[in-house]
Amino acid sequence: MSKYDILPTISTSFIVLSAILVAIGWNLAIKRKLEAHKKVMLAGAVSALLFFLIYMSRTVFVGNTDWGGSDEMKPYYLTFLFFHIVLATVGAVFGLTTLTLAFKERFAKHRKWGRITSVIWFFTAITGVMVYVLLYLMYPGGHTKPVLDVLFGGG
Ligand code: HEM
């Protein structure tokens, strides 16, 4: 594993952790263990936030990694990556809405949004792991370049 692969490994672990916490939190809500539900969901949200912070700092300071596989496969990979990014973005907006509804104690709405948010988050985690496997395990070797270098030259 190169030094470039350490941060994505950590950030992908945080998406997986947050999806596991959301699954546990959902189960706790169904069992009406609501205080525990709150704590576990907040831990899930913190874990998602850590993923985002690591991912963004890597994008700016280290860079994004290009597709390392064949040219024929590249459009499929990019389509899949796009799908994952859309899911993650929608999941983040739904997650913030779900949290806001909970803190405003609008629990009937929170419950409806929470179910959709959780399902979106499961798919975000699954597709995130698949992107990680494709980019770093199955087809390693793509070039990594910081956004700052792309914008201002150098590197
Ligand atoms: C992003 C984080 C959260 C998600 C994804 C989430 C998700 C959910 C889901 C899916 C349910 C419905 C369970 C079911 O019946 O199928 C639920 C219920 C509930 N959640 Fe959350 N939750 C989150 C955070 C919170 C927080 C921070 C609180 C407390 C401030 C909270 C309080 C509740 C309560 C009281 C219910 C029961 C609502 C009812 O049955 O009327 N949740 N949540």
UniProtKB/TrEMBL annotation:
InterPro entries the UniProt entry points to: Cyt_c_oxidase_su3_a-hlx (IPR013833), DUF420 (IPR007352)
GO biological process: respiratory electron transport chain
GO cellular component: membrane
A GO MF term: cytochrome-c oxidase activity
Residues passing through the membrane, by range: 6-28, 40-56, 76-99, 119-139
Pfam annotation, one family: DUF420
UniProt entry keywords in alphabetical sequence: Membrane, Transmembrane, Transmembrane helix
PANTHER family per the UniProt record, alphabetical: DUF420 DOMAIN-CONTAINING PROTEIN (PTHR37692:SF1), HYPOTHETICAL MEMBRANE SPANNING PROTEIN (PTHR37692)
Name recorded for this polypeptide: DUF420 domain-containing protein
